[in-house]
Amino acid sequence: MKKILWIAAAVVALSLTSCQNDYKQQGEEWAQRLDELCQKQDADAVLALDDSIRSLEAKIVAAGDTAGVADFRKALKDARQRNAAYISTLKLERGMVKDSVVNEVISDALAGDVDINAVTSSVDAALQKEKK
Fold first, then answer.
1. Measured distance CA(104)–CA(126) in Å, rounded
2. Apex CA 67: angle with CA 82 and CA 75, to 5°?
3. Cβ proximity of 88 and 101 under 8 Å
4. DSSP secondary-structure letter at 77?
5. Which of 30, 114, 118, 124 gets the highest tally of CB atoms within 10 A of its CB?
6. Nearest to residue 108, comparing CAs of 100, 39, 49?
């Protein structure tokens, strides 16, 4: 009986580690893709990928996988910070309300997804877009 419990514990531990690595790997792949799409200025693809990132992140959080969400966020953090202003501008161009765009970036900062520089650049981009 003890051996069965040890084997079961090992299987559970491996599966949890596997999920975390999958989230990290998924985050790294999407980070690279986000950078590429933003560089190409493929607006539709950028917004679709941003929606996918937010959706998967919400699912991981809802599942209570704190290690998985931490790995996922860490893998994406730099790319999301670099591209925050561009993504915010796209959302404004597509009709999203300025307050919603800014609040979304602030929520990202509070969750640890981006830093204050991303918030500042997004707010600046929103203000510049509003002036035009």
1. 12
2. 20
3. yes
4. H
5. 114
6. 100
Query: Distance between CA 3 and CA 38 in Å, rounded?
Result: 52
Nearest CA to 126 out of 95, 89, 93 is that of 89
Both tokens assigned to 120: 């500042």
Q: Tokens in use for 34?
A: 């986000």
Q: Is 83 exposed, middle or buried (0-12, 13-18, 19+ CB in 10 A)?
A: buried
105: helix, coil or strand?
Answer: helix
CA distances from 84 to 5, 33, 66 (A): 47, 14, 24
Cα–Cα distance for residue pair 69/62, rounded to 1 Å: 10
- pLDDT tens for each residue of 3-48: 444 444 444 444 444 445 699 999 999 999 999 999 999 999 999 9
Closest CA to 82 of 42, 36, 22, 126: 36
From residue 55, alpha-carbon distances to 4, 48, 59, 60 in Å are 37, 10, 6, 9
Retrieve residue 37's tokens: 């799409």
